[in-house]
Structures are given as structure tokens and as C-alpha cells.
Amino acid sequence: MGCAGAAGRGGLADGGGMIQELVGQMGGLAWTVVAFIVALSIIVGVHEYGHYIVGRWSGIRAEVFSLGFGPRLFARRDRRGTVWQVAAIPLGGYVRFLGDADAASMTRDGHMDPALARQTLGGAPLWARFATVAAGPVFNFILAALVFAGVIAWQGIATDRVVVGEIAPTPPGIVNELRPGDEVLAVGGQPVNGWATLFRLTETLPAAPQQQWTVRRQGDELTVTAPDVAPPRISGVGPRSAASAVDLRAGDVILAVEGRPINRFTDLRPAVEAAQGRPVTLRVWREGEGEADFVLVPREQDLPSAGGGFEKRWLIGVTGGEGYIRPSTRTPGPFEALSMGAQQTWDVIWGSLTGMVAMVTGQIGRCNLSGAISIAEVAGDAASSGAGNFFWLVAVLSAGIGFLNLLPIPVLDGGHLAFYTWEAVAGRPPSARAMDILTRIGMALVLMLMFFGLSNDILCR
């Protein structure tokens, strides 16, 4: 385990190491690109399939279903006459319906045979057009809820009783006499009635490397020595964070900050905040590698506050939680998992909405908006950390993309739906000139948003 922030060595002797590092970086880049393409292809494929299938059910004929843009790599025509293709540029996709003449899919051909015109998007009834356009984002939300539910069901949820599932390794000198299957009854003499109450003991128990735990083991009640309920053990590392930049990993244990020992994960926050963006040295223990120092530069971020709104905080990008014990889990039923998946999807949508409003009103900074580079890096990190994390990210991105597509901006699905709403209220569609002007404005806004996100990817590091 290397020491972050250490001075480099020069000379020919390091040539092999430099080559290995370069190869590693190239391999990491390739993995990031592949993970990004796979995630984007899943999300876009489901989004476009929503347009396609609801359009087909509504009597609208699809001429082309394309995954990707540019030159065609593979194609086949089905019995309905739709060409299904994979194109060379895997950065999106589209469905081209019969009669589409431009990106807005709003053209009507007055000279077309009425029966054929009914099969075009522009010639279909208002309800069919509305349903077909809305289906893309709706399918993204459905995908997100299903994937969230699948990951939750696969990983399981903690049992109601506080039963120890697995035991993680501890640094030398830390005693852990807990065993898998132990039911925790009390810690430090304070009763434990559930996992939530266990972690709330940090509010009343003094921080110490070890505590006295009362457990029920094979029918017997006994007291054992075990680590604190919330030790400074990392359970997760955020992508594109200060911690990921120096290769901190889940399972690492933080022993000291700036030379001062810490006993509880919550002790980390005030130490990082006190640095105010200056480099912070962490003494870290890693299983199989021992101790080493890591030098991190905290990054300022805008986070939701408990009382509403946002607050600025200095973060290094690590999370804690289960400490050295992993809860015993159960598999939720399908309805319970789907309910939790739907709730998680709504949380992403609501978080996206409040974050966008806060950014527009100036409550949070511009660096909270990320572009394709950041998303690709996050996808690569998630894929590297396991299938569960990768598919969870796919669900988050799917819900977020569904939300963005519903924004009332021309060229996005939400813009089309706004046009259709106008038509339903006014009894006629907007004029061709108005739609052309609004579509150009919408395209400019989307391009500006993309450029803004990409510039943040480069500047906000």
C-alpha cells in the first residue's frame, strides 16, 4: 500500500514502474469507457423501447430502432418492417417513426393517404402522441424501480433483531469477541431494540476503542468485549472523491487524523472540517498490508441540510456504518422490494428536482452539475466495486435521465409534451414557425447544458 502524497523517485530504475503505471491507467480508462457504454446502452435502450412499444400499441409505425448513432454496424428488419440496428457511436439512440422529418418529430404531410397518415407520429391522435412520447421517461422510471428492487432483494435487508451476520477483520490490538449468530441485547449497559437504536448509542456512549456487549449466544446470555458501535472503518468510498483519488478502499480503518487517534467514525468529520480544504493526513490500517499514511485534500460540496435547503461542507468522500459487523439479512418479498425500489426512484427524482432548483436559485454551486466524463468515471468505479454497485448506479442514472427528459425544453420529451398540452388546451398545435423557433432555442439550451457539464468535469476537481 503506497503512501499518498509521497515524493516520486527519478532515474532509469523506475522505467518499468512508469510503464506499469501507464498500462494500468490505460486499462482503467478502457474499463471506464466500457462500463459507461454498457450503462448508457441499457438506459437508452429501455427509454427508446418505451417510445417504440407504446407507439406500436397506439398504431404508430416505427421505421428504425437504433442503438447508437452514425454508420450502421448491424441491422435486421422484423416482420412489421421496423429496422433494428446497432450504430458505430454508442452515445445514445433513437426511434424514427413513419413520417418523421426532423428532430422534433412534429411534421405532418398533408398529401399523405389518410390511412397511412394515421400511422405517423404527426398524424396520430393527440392521446397516442402524448402516450408515445411520455413512455420513454416512464420506462426509465420503471427500469429504475425494478433494478433498485432487484438489488435490494439480492443483497437483502437487515433483520428486525440485531443478529450479527459476518465479522470483519480488526487492526492489531482491537479485540472482537462477537461471533456470527450472536443476538445483541445491550452495549455499555444500554439496551438495544433494533439496528437503529444500536447506531443511536453513539449519542450517549462515550467513544472508546472497545465496549462491553451483552449478547445471546446459543441460548446463553453473556458479556463480551467488542469494538465501538461505530468505529472509524470505511464502508464505502465515493467516486471522484478525495478518498478515491488516493486509493482508499472499503474495509480500511482510520486510526488517526493529523497524528491524533480517533475511536469513532463521527470523529472524522470535525477533523476534516477544521482543515478547511488544507491537506489532511490519515493513518490507515488495511488488512494484509498494515499501516500507511494517506494525504487527502478535502473538497467542498453542497449537501442537503436537516432543516431544508443546502449547506457547504468539506468532505473526503468516505462513509461508515456497519463497523466490523455485518447485519444478518433476510430476503424481502417481491411487493416489499418493489415498494422500496419505487421509493428509492422517487427519492432520486425529488433529489434531482430540488438540486436543480437550488442550482438555478444560487443556493448551491455550479460544480454540482456533472457531465459525461464524470458519469463515465462514476460508472467505471461502480463496475469495479461490484455488480450490485454498478446496477444501483444504472438505476440512479435511469431515474435521473427520465427526470431530465421530462423538463419542458423543446427537443426533449418534456418539450413535446408541453406542445401537446398546448394543443389540448388551445384546440390546435403551435404554429410551425413557433415550433421551429422554440426547437432551436431548446437545442441551444441542451448544448449549453452539455458544455457546462463537461467544463465542470474538467474544472471542478
Automatic annotation (TrEMBL):
Belongs to the peptidase M50B family. The lineage of its organism: Bacteria, Pseudomonadati, Pseudomonadota, Alphaproteobacteria, Rhodobacterales. It is found in: Membrane. Keywords: Hydrolase, Membrane, Metal-binding, Metalloprotease, Protease, Transmembrane, Transmembrane helix, Zinc. Gene3D superfamilies: 2.30.42.10. This is Zinc metalloprotease. GO terms for biological process: proteolysis. It comes from the Bacteria. GO terms for cellular component: membrane. Its cofactor is Zn(2+). SUPFAM superfamilies: PDZ domain-like. CDD domains: S2P-M50_PDZ_RseP-like (cd06163). GO terms for molecular function: metal ion binding; metalloendopeptidase activity. Its EC number is 3.4.24.-. Residues 144-219, 220-288 form the PDZ domain. It is a multi-pass membrane protein. The chain crosses the membrane at residues 28-46, 82-99, 126-154, 390-412, 437-459.
